[in-house]
Design goal:
The complex is a heterodimer of chains A (511) and B (640). Chain A contains 20 helices and five strands. Chain A has 511 residues and is mainly α. Chain A has one domain. In chain A, the strands form two sheets. Chain A has a three-stranded antiparallel beta sheet with strand order 4-3-5. A two-stranded antiparallel ribbon of chain A has the order 1-2. With 640 residues, chain B is mainly alpha-helical. In chain B, a hairpin with a 2-residue loop joins strand 1 and strand 2. Classes of the chains: A mainly alpha (511), B mainly alpha (640). Chain A: It catalyses: a quinone + NADH + 5 H(+)(in) = a quinol + NAD(+) + 4 H(+)(out). Chain A: InterPro entries: NADH-Q_OxRdtase_suN/2 (IPR010096), ND/Mrp_TM (IPR001750).
């Protein structure tokens, strides 16, 4: 047996960022076991941040690496390094939000998730107890999984990575300190529907294996021209894979979980999902479609294009009538998935680079947006109903101004990263002849501007109601996260050349 | 036409010595204006002094530069301070030009401006907004100096808009009075009409010649077709008419008297309103190249001078009479610059002389109002000579200057224009000459009426006035100095300024026309004496206190010859109807469409929202449905 099984050659340097993250995550689990509750939280956050920064440094140091390693399971190339870096940077900012403990005693996470919600014990722990510090290793596992997902070079690795980053997220969603029933419901829904989508993905993997006899992307690519098997297997398999990926990307009609989960999850986790999960999901989608199925682009382009149009329009139209800021941002995130799909469907170098740019720009903005949401609170925690935001500009002009700026960025107003990012994907769409998508994108942007501006009007032009909550003074961590998100949104809008050369250089897959 | 000797190319030298800093002329009042307006109330105590001092310093500098320039061989120096608008093919420098024409304007603006600033210290002494007033006043001086010192049309336009802004701010200075606010808006809007023409003229120059620099434009103007040159000239003329209150844009100028009297004196008599004359004189190579445009200019000048005289005869408000007299006198200047050749210089010297005597008359009127509780109706004055001797004497000298009796300045500057009008060839010469002559007679009549009703005859004061008084020294001294100017300036300028301006306007031989020099002079003197005598006889016994019924001509004149009615009927009403129609279309059509679309999206959103039930089973169902559709679509695309 030992003759036929040879350990594949592994380039540890190329895998180092992921290894660091997984290592830190495991270390975090040990910390949970070894230290008392009080000191754990003080150790976990610096540990997690340190790990993420170390991984980021390695990514930057190996930015020129181009290799396929671990027996062809992992590709380290321009896009994967760029996506890893993006996930790490956005993850660090999200960690700052997760680690914030001055807004609420003990942080935004529940101490013991197993206590039945709304009982006497639960109320007691909601008031005083130190929050769960397991969130940090869970977050590290999720981030590591996302990085693996966007670098996976075969379908099985991809599936494993999908589960590695999904399972911690399911758990994290259930850990809100306040409104725990909503939080648990969200986690349950996310888990059930996520499993459902994973099943589709797995089924797709099986189909593709049936067609190509291999699961690595290069092999699939070769099989598309050479395989004797029925192409029905190929197309059904591709559809199923796409469904699994589009679910994570929150594209219509696989978006249904998004508003409920975004609303129910603890807001820092929502921010993490909106920024990092989106990067990972689109990273995976880009790699599968560009590398493995690039040759059948004429077959899937119209289908994915239709999904893009639906996503943009349904997301925008549904955002119009939302009354909860987190649900509003959820639908906005759905519509943004649609804009990103334009870059994906373009299937050219510009499409790839503009999608990469979009992911980073959107990630920063959405982190800042949810950062502001964590600040607007009353005695019961965050006040997310829009009616409570009326007149916020009078009470806290600074944060209302920051949020206004963020909303303008979402609406794609020039001098914000929202404009340059959208311009990039739209231009790539036009260049590859997908003008119809761009028309739908512009229409959708116009519709979507309405709910954004409605919030702006609400904040500045409405009289503050009796019940308008105050904006809490953020601690250093949230302040830093807000500042990074806002400044990045401004910087990428005013000087997109800070990032454009990097995305352009990174926009080349290897097989 | 007279032959012109402007064959050699226009060229500007670089400044040396003291002249290299002539940009200070603009900078000093501008900085002062900024200080006064930005410091706010903190500067209330000393603001007016700074305002006066800055213009005084500018005047002294103006004298220094004037004498430096007179020592130079090439009497035109130009500097480019910085690149102002480098956009594509358009490169405009912030460039200044100091030549004999600019030099005399600088002296007029800063000299007369200084005297009026001093006067305003007294006139505005009790006004709480005095600092703000001086801030605007200095802003005006800076903008006006920029206007005359620019070395390209964009700089000219920059200053042009600057003085327009200052004029608007100062007309509406007492903005709580609805009439002042309205007058400010009226002036602004009517000026926009002219300014739009001016701007189009500049665009056309740039489009055809690719430059807006004076020297490049003038040296290349012969390359343009006759039609283009005429179009440029007429567009510039439209701008000039707007700023100078010439037909058909004259209606704003009398209303502009709502501003404080020093404003009327400086901006709406002595300097800004003559900017149109400056524009035409400065652009003389363009106007020289188009006979059509010049004919339009003389037509407008002659028509406006008559309009101003006729309305001036019928008005009872002392400042409005003077305002229409300004309209009429600028008509003479337009007539002169339209005649071209040697008459360019006549237009400029009449402008300078007018700057002195009209400023003196306005300030005199202000002094009368000051002593009479701000009464402006000349029917309620009378017999003021005894109470205001200095005002009487200085206004008397200004009066003699404007009607043009020997040896006062009007004689030296207006009579030659009448002569030049008669010298114009063909029947047009007779028409223009007669109009100018008639205007002189009418001017003598209405100015005599004004003067006699104010200072002589029985007292017709309102009851609240017990003791009219002479104004304080700070107001009378500028009056005296301006009066001295009215007496002395004419003869001096008629002999020296024409030669001084030669480098800019060229040398010309005097033409020979329909009537000889002495004939015209004699005729003018006779007509003026008839007009003045008639005025004296009719009004020396005073006038009715109320408006009396009158024939159609006087009624028409009282109503400004229906210019406002005409504007209202021809421009305002169609504009209003158009607006209403557009509003209707917008409400019903555009808004209907937009609102309908918004309602449709909102409704769609509400309906779609219901699919978001919150049940995992229906979510899973929708995912399954979507999956089936995707698979089906993929297969359909591939095998369909």
């Amino acid at each position: 047996m030992s003759d036929s099984f040879k350990l594949p050659n592994i380039d540890y340097a190329a895998l180092a960022p992921m290894l660091i993250l997984f290592g830190v995550a495991c270390l975090g689990v040990l910390v949970e076991a070894a230290f008392r509750r009080f000191s754990r939280a003080r150790i976990q956050l610096p540990l997690a941040l340190l790990g993420a920064v170390a991984a980021l440094i390695v990514v930057i140091a190996t930015a020129d690496k181009r290799t396929v390693t671990a027996g062809g399971a992992i590709a380290v190339d321009g896009p994967s390094l760029f996506l890893q870096g993006s996930i790490l940077v956005l993850g660090i900012v999200a960690l700052l939000l997760i680690g914030e403990r001055t807004l609420e005693r003990g942080g935004s996470f529940v101490a013991q998730a197993a206590v039945t919600a709304n009982t006497e014990a639960d109320r007691a722990q909601a008031a005083t107890a130190e929050g769960a510090s397991e969130v940090y290793p869970l977050t590290m596992f999720a981030l590591g999984g996302m990085m693996l997902f966007s670098s996976a070079n075969d379908l099985l690795t991809m599936f494993v990575a999908l589960e590695v980053f999904s399972l911690p997220l399911y758990l994290l969603c259930a850990l809100a300190r306040r409104r725990r029933l909503l939080s648990q419901e969200a986690a349950m829904k996310y888990f059930l529907l996520g499993s459902f989508a994973s099943a589709f993905f797995l089924f797709g993997v099986a189909m593709i294996y049936g067609f190509a006899g291999r699961v690595d992307f290069r092999g699939i690519d070769e099989a598309i021209v050479g395989s004797p098997a029925s192409p029905v297997l190929l197309y059904v398999g591709l559809s199923m894979l796409a469904i699994g990926l589009l679910f994570k990307a929150a594209a219509v009609p696989f978006h249904v979980w998004t508003p409920d989960v975004y609303q129910g999850a603890p807001t820092p986790i929502t921010a993490l999902m909106a920024a990092c999960t989106k990067v990972a999901a689109f990273g995976g989608l880009l790699r599968v479609l560009y590398v493995a199925f690039g040759r059948s682009q004429w077959d899937f382009q119209p289908v994915i294009g239709t999904i893009a149009v639906l996503t943009m329009l349904v997301g925008a139209v549904l955002a119009v009538t939302q009354t909860d800021i987190k649900r509003l941002l959820a639908y906005s995130s759905i519509a943004n998935a649609g804009y990103l799909l334009i870059g994906v469907v373009a299937l050219n170098k510009d499409g790839l680079s503009s999608s990469l740019f979009y992911l980073v720009a959107y990630g920063f903005t959405v982190l800042a947006a949810f950062g502001v949401v964590t600040l607007v609170r009353d005695a019961d925690g965050e006040a997310t109903h829009l009616s409570r935001w009326a007149g916020l500009g009078r009470r806290s002009p600074l944060f209302a101004a920051v949020f206004t700026f963020i909303l303008l960025a979402f609406a794609g107003i020039p001098l914000t990263s929202g404009f340059t990012a959208k311009f990039g994907v739209f231009a790539a769409g036009v260049e590859s002849g997908q003008t119809w998508l761009v028309i739908a994108g512009v229409l959708s942007s116009a519709i979507l501007a309405f709910p954004y501006l409605r919030v702006v009007v609400l904040m500045w032009l409405s009289e503050p109601a009796e019940s308008t909550p105050s904006v809490s003074i953020p601690g250093a961590l949230t302040s830093a996260a807000l500042m990074i998100g806002t400044l990045a949104t401004l910087a990428l809008g005013v000087a997109p050349t800070l990032l454009l050369p990097i995305t352009t250089k990174a926009a080349e897959f290897i097989r | 036409m007279q032959p012109t000797t402007l064959a050699e190319a226009v060229s500007f030298a670089s400044p040396t010595g003291a002249l290299s800093s002539f940009w200070l002329l603009i900078a000093i009042p501008l900085v002062s204006a900024a200080i006064l307006l930005l410091l706010g109330r903190r500067a209330d105590k000393w603001g007016h002094l700074l305002g006066v001092a800055s213009v005084g310093v500018a005047f002294v500098l103006g004298l220094v530069y004037f004498f430096s320039l007179s020592g130079l061989k090439n009497k035109a120096v130009s500097i480019n301070l910085f690149e102002f608008m480098p956009v594509g093919g358009l490169k405009v420098d912030f460039g200044l030009l100091y030549d004999p024409l600019s030099a005399v304007f600088v002296l007029l603006i800063t000299g007369v401006g200084f005297l009026i600033h001093v006067y305003a210290v007294g006139y505005m002494a009790h006004d709480p907004g005095r600092r703000r007033f001086f801030g605007y006043f200095n802003l005006f001086v800076a903008a006006m100096l920029l206007l005359v010192l620019g070395n390209n049309y964009v700089m000219l336009y920059f200053g042009w808009e600057g003085v327009g802004l200052a004029s608007y701010l100062l007309i509406s200075f007492w903005y709580l009075r609805p009439s002042a606010a309205t007058a400010g808006k009226k002036a602004f809007i009517m000026n926009r009409v002219g300014d739009a023409g001016f701007a189009l003229g500049i665009f056309l120059l740039f489009a055809t010649l690719g430059t807006v620099q004076y020297d490049e434009v003038f040296n290349n103007i012969h390359k343009l077709s006759a039609g283009t040159v005429t179009a440029v000239a007429l567009l510039l003329l439209l701008g000039a008419c707007g700023k100078s209150g010439q037909f058909p844009l004259q209606a704003w100028l009398p209303d502009a008297m709502e501003g404080p009297t020093p404003v009327s004196a400086l901006i709406h008599a002595a300097t800004m309103v003559t900017a149109g004359v400056y524009l035409i004189a400065r652009s003389h190579p363009i106007f020289d190249a188009s006979d059509v445009a010049r004919t339009v200019v003389v037509g407008i000048g002659a028509l406006t001078l008559l309009i101003g005289c006729v309305i001036g005869c019928a008005k009872d408000d002392i400042k409005r009479v003077l305002a229409y007299s300004t309209v009429s006198q600028i008509g003479y200047m337009f007539l002169a610059v339209g005649l071209g050749g040697a008459a360019y210089a006549l237009g400029i010297i009449h402008l300078l002389a007018h700057g002195f005597f009209k400023a003196g008359l306005f300030l005199g009127a202000g002094s009368v109002m000051h002593g009479m509780n701000d009464q402006t109706d000349i029917r309620r004055f009378g017999g003021l000579r005894k109470y205001m001797p200095i005002t009487w004497a200085t206004m008397g000298l200004g009066y003699l200057a404007i009607i043009g009796l020997f040896p006062f300045s009007g004689f030296w500057t207006k009579d030659p224009i009448i002569l030049a009008a008669f010298n114009h060839e063909g029947w047009l010469g007779w028409v223009l000459g007669s109009a100018a002559l008639l205007g002189a007679g009418l001017t003598a009549f209405y100015m005599t009426r004004l003067f006699v009703l104010t200072f002589h005859g029985p007292k017709r004061w309102t009851e609240d006035i017990k003791h009219p008084h002479e104004s304080p020294k700070i107001m009378t001294i500028p009056l005296i100095l301006l009066a001295v100017g009215s007496v002395a300036a004419g003869g001096l300028m008629a002999t020296s300024v024409v030669g001084w301006l030669e480098p800019v306007l060229g040398t010309h031989e005097e033409g020979h026309g329909h009537l000889g020099h002495w004939t015209v002079t004699a005729l003018t003197v006779v007509v003026v004496l008839i007009g003045a005598g008639l005025g004296w006889v009719l009004f020396t016994k005073g006038a009715a206190l109320q408006e009396q019924p009158a024939g159609p001509i006087v009624t028409a004149a009282r109503n400004n010859l229906y210019a406002d009615t005409f504007n209202e009927a021809v421009f305002e009403m169609p504009g209003k109807y158009l607006t209403r129609a557009l509003v209707y279309l917008d409400n019903r059509g555009v808004d209907g469409l937009v609102n309908g679309l918004a309602a449709a999206i909102g409704g769609g959103s509400g309906r779609l929202r219901r699919t978001q039930t919150g049940f995992v089973r229906s979510y899973a169902m929708s995912i399954l449905g979507g999956a089936l559709l995707v698979v089906a679509a993929m297969l359909a695309v591939t095998f369909g």
